[in-house]
Amino acid sequence: MYDTLKEETGSDAKANEIYINTRDAAYDIIQAKGSTYYGIALALLRISKALLNNENSILTVSSQLNGQYGFNDVYLGLPTLINQNGAVKIYETPLNDNELQLLEKSVKTLEDTYDSIKHLV
Asked: 110: domain range?
């Protein structure tokens, strides 16, 4: 993903700026408004419209991975085709080695957290 940004912008600095701004967007919203509930409500509205209107829209939603990026039975926010049948297809964005390592670290954190609390459910 970063490599694609770098290629599209023609600048390592610009790609890094876009990456950081995207990564930190939720924190900026919370700091400015005190919460992100309006954003969550708008996202839910958009997903509901895609489902109810059978739009075949590609939206970033938390989807269960079944082999994508080499992972199974973990949920990650990825571009996913949404229509009246739900989450129909997950699209894998090309990742460089560093991004894949960061993704693996995130998945490990999710799995470890789940393992530590699953006895509560």
From this structure: 55-120
Q: Within a domain: residue 42?
A: no
Structural domains counted in the chain: 1
Residue 75 CA to residue 57 CA, distance in Å, equals 19
**Do residues 93 and 1 touch, judged by C-beta distance below 8 A?**
yes
103 Cβ partners below 8 Å, 6+ apart? 69, 76, 95
Q: Does residue 9 lie in a domain region?
A: no
What is the C-alpha separation between 110 and 104, in angstroms, rounded?
10
Quote the pLDDT of residue 36. 67
Alpha helices in the chain (DSSP H): 2-9, 12-23, 25-33, 37-52, 97-117
Phi, psi of 92 (to 5 degrees): -90, 120
Q: What do you get for the CA distance between the two ends of the chain, in Å?
A: 36
Question: Going residue by residue through the chain (121 aa), what tens digit of pLDDT does each one get?
Answer: 667 666 777 777 777 777 777 777 667 766 766 666 777 888 999 999 999 999 999 999 999 999 999 999 999 999 999 999 999 999 999 999 999 999 999 999 999 999 999 999 8
